[in-house]
Design brief:
single chain; alpha/beta; six-stranded mixed sheet
């Protein structure tokens, strides 16, 4: 079985996926960001200028690498699932990312989850987790000159200026609005993470989607 948990930055995707994996007998977490980080030379994390203002799609190398990371995550998830290991994929999956998912997992049954807390909650979480993110990046790279340094510095400055930490907040929200109404859509704000996992397990039948099949259920 494959689970896909998508949503905006700070929606709780990673925490939920890890807790869900721990509750299942045999499961792996496949993080889209980690697929991007496999690119050690020439890694291109997107910036706002990479976004087409009309469609919200990423352009150029940033767009190519974003679509690639979703394809790679889905390929890894499929390999785990074929070996009998439940795979839980997490990322902000919109636009070309959703197209990549559909291409790779077409015809497969998945549990598709969209975590959609209010924007105000996302913004506060973004500020609150900056120290944890700084510690993670320092531990991962061990030096200040790394592929994510500039984007992280931008988030720190945004917090200091009172602006949203996630510069793609609106782009992702609009992308989520354009997703087909498949799977289970959930506002996890105000809930303990373990309670969120309880709901996903209790309502997994609502989350079921055969990839590529059109449906209006879920919201």
């Amino acid at each position: 079985m494959i689970w896909v948990i998508c949503g905006n930055a700070c929606a709780g995707k990673t925490t939920t996926a890890r807790l869900l994996a721990q509750r299942l007998p045999l499961a792996a977490h496949v993080d889209g960001d980690e697929m991007q980080r496999l690119i050690l030379s020439g890694c291109r994390w997107p910036v706002p200028s990479d976004t087409d203002p009309g469609t919200g799609r990423l352009t150029g190398e940033a767009g190519a690498q974003y679509a690639l990371r979703i394809r790679t995550a889905c390929l890894v998830a499929a390999a785990f699932a074929d070996a009998g290991i439940t795979a839980i994929v997490t990322d902000a999956i919109i636009n070309e990312g959703f197209e990549s998912l559909t291409e790779i997992l077409s015809g497969r049954p998945v549990n598709f989850i969209v975590l959609r807390p209010p924007v105000a909650v996302l913004r506060q979480r973004g500020v609150d987790r900056l120290p944890e993110e700084a510690a993670y990046l320092a531990d991962r790279y061990g030096h200040s000159d790394h592929p994510e340094a500039a984007t992280f510095a931008g988030r720190v400055q945004a917090a200091a200026d009172g602006r949203p930490v996630n510069e793609f907040e609106e782009v992702i929200e609009r992308g989520l609005d354009r997703l087909p109404h498949v799977g289970l859509w959930l506002d996890p704000s105000g809930m303990d993470p373990q309670r969120v996992v309880d709901l996903l397990l209790d309502r997994r039948a609502e989350a079921e989607w055969k990839v590529g099949a059109a449906t209006n259920k879920g919201r």
